[in-house]
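Look over this one:
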Amino acid sequence: MLTKSLTALLFSLALASPALAATCGDTSAGFEGWKTDMAREAKAEGIGKAGIAALMGASYSKATISADRNQKSFKYTLQKFLSVRGADAIISQGRAREKKNRDFYAGLEAQYGVPAGVLLAIHGMETGFGNFMGDTNVVSAIATLTYDCRRTDFFRPHLLGALVLVDRGSISSKSIGAKHGELGHTQFLPGNALTYGQDGNGDGRVDLANLSDAMATTANYLRQKGWQPGKGYQEGEPNFAVIKEWNAATVYQQAIALMAAKIDS
């Protein structure tokens, strides 16, 4: 399982780590040397042989860097963003999914307080309801973003999280995710998967490619970030602040809230 006490310890150590000794870079030129330095740091923080091997086998991902530099849709107006991201289709499919699996989503709301519309809007927005969960090597993507000077401190805990997942056999060095290394139906960064992961189907493990686990994990993340059961989630209402925790882009936050309300209606 992903949610053992050792996980919390490793993740907290990563968050509290001193300044990096491994030198970041803006091109692929120093990546191989950085991996050696980073592997030494990761080993000192408790990462095992499988995780270290996965790190040393990682490749610099130009596709990840390109995606990180060109997130143009977040600069659109809300109406343009909704159109580009297929909001009408997400709402329609979300309603159908809620109707088909009403007991499942009611159970999640009873446990975590998060209504179906919010979970379904996120699911639809992130992966088209699981139809596309990524095409990029997870460890390579996270390692590249940790090496890159732009947001090293943000991605370092997620790299360590990915290596813990490899050590535990939850993912492998060949696992595929999104361009930034996100996993599963709702695209969790590895460190967040460790911290908030839930076994939604009761099989004793957390697998974010499994819909039950992914939805439970998403609901748990929102609840742990401060979701107030029964409170509103539109702009100006208490739970909109929690939607902000999911994604930093204002237009994305607004889109989730609007689509969720239409699905819930």
